[in-house]
Amino acid sequence: MIISIVNFSALSDEEMQRTIRAINRQLDRDFEPYWHMGARLRLEGPAGREPRRQNPSELRGDGIVYVWDEVDIPGALGYHDANNRGIPYGFVFRELCDEIGEPWSVTLSHEALEMVGDANVNLLAAGPNPTEPEKTVFFWYEMCDAVQADQYEIDSVVVSNFVLPLYFTIHEEVGGRNDFLGRAHEGVTLRSFGINPGGYVGFFNPETGEHEVYARKGDEEAARRLATKARASVTRRAVRYRQLARRTAQAAALIYPEAATIITH
Fold first, then answer.
1. b/e map of 11-44 (b: 16 or more CB within 10 Å)?
2. pLDDT tens for residues 130-177?
3. Full-model pTM
4. Cα(44)–Cα(28) distance, rounded to whole angstroms?
5. Which end of the chain is more exposed for a tag (fewer CB within 10 A), N or C?
6. Residue 156 φ/ψ, nearest 5 degrees
């Protein structure tokens, strides 16, 4: 997979290339050996002041990520709704990174890894409801959300931790590892479908018919991250999950007319 990176920010191309090299190394040496899925990030030149919504002319590969300084740059958010051609895409808003207190390189790493893991944002994994473990929900197939506050360095560039395939197993595997760093918090490493401090998980709850988000009770960092990210609630994942919910509701209505109202957003 080739992911085109387009720099619409005040960052220099030299700084972008340094970060891209580190994330490419992460993909090659850390991520792919576990997930057997790889990618290369490649910097492209912007073709204008903002993305072309229906024809992203900067696209030279299989997906595209735009790096912006502010959240409210004209055209940035509208792109999500306008482009329905099935192109995997994402945004890195440096303003949000600063508010969260996260290096933008971590956000780009996070976005790239999750694009590789679920390019079309339509995969779900069955697992226990975080508040009612005896019930089953369908977790978003996200590589970094649960461990997003854990970071490490590659060539002095800070990148995101990520979960491993065993994370999405309902029963714990003896001797298994659920995230790349394996960092212990309060003496305990990450469990399957668990959350490290500062992280969260999203899932579809068939009982309520809605997509929900869960973080540890009293986790102020996770709450702050979620509140800040809510400003960009039309990001790639949010839009695709809403589209998935609407399509699921439409399909259910055709088969079970009485279920037409179970998923509305």
1. eeeeebeebbebbbebbeebbeeebeeebebebb
2. 999 999 999 999 999 999 999 999 999 999 999 999 999 988 777 789
3. 0.83
4. 20
5. C
6. 70, 10
What average pLDDT is seen over the chain? 81
Residue carrying the six token digits 């971590």: 106
What sign has the CA pseudo-torsion 116, 120, 121, 123? negative
Domain ranges of the chain: 2-259
Q: How far apart are the first and last CA of the chain?
A: 31
Torsion of CA 94, 96, 100, 104, to 10 degrees: -20
* Cα gap 25→39, rounded to integer Å: 10
Instruction: Please state, as a whole number, how many other Cβ atoms lie within 10 Å of the Cβ of residue 72.
Output: 11
As to burial, measured by CB atoms within 10 angstroms (0-12 exposed, 13-18 middle, 19+ buried), residue 240 is: middle
